[in-house]
Amino acid sequence: MSDPVGHQGPAASGPASAGGNPEAPENAEYRVAHLQERLAAEELGELGVRAEFRAGAVAVTGTVPSARCRETVLRLAREELAGLTVHTDVVVAETDRPDHAEELW
């Protein structure tokens, strides 16, 4: 499942453009690393999500335990990566009880 967080080009103004070209690899890689830190350290404590800068875009992928957790990941990605092209593939793990017994052969 792919869900674009923000499919945008460089920001015209604001904090992202104040420090130079927001599409510059060193700036993007720094922002991706900061996103990873926030995912691991903040209220989320999510280590099952990866963010990588590849070919001029950021890929955010992984599996999370709930829809609420997924929304938090997407919100953090929007905050940290504003102005960059971002592709997301963050899915919610199935944690429901099985509706029938498993049949073993």
Structure characteristics:
33% helix; 23% strand; disordered N terminus; 105 residues; alpha+beta; elongated; 4-stranded mixed beta sheet; 4 strands; 3 helices
Describe how the helices and strands are arranged:
Elements: E1 6-7, H1 15-18, H2 25-41, E2 49-54, E3 57-64, H3 67-80, E4 85-92
Parallel strand pairs: 3-4
Antiparallel strand pairs: 1-4, 2-3
The low-confidence runs, each spanning 5 or more residues with pLDDT under 50, are 1-23
Major sheet attributes: 4 strands, mixed
Question: How many helix segments?
Answer: 3
Shape: elongated
Level of helix content? 25-40%
Distance between the termini: 32 Å
Strand content: 15-25%
> Which strand order does the major sheet show?
1-4-3-2
Number of strands: 4
Secondary-structure element order, N to C: EHHEEHE
What is the CA-based Rg, rounded? 16 Å
Tell me, rounded to a whole number, the average pLDDT: 76
Helix and strand content put the structural class at alpha+beta
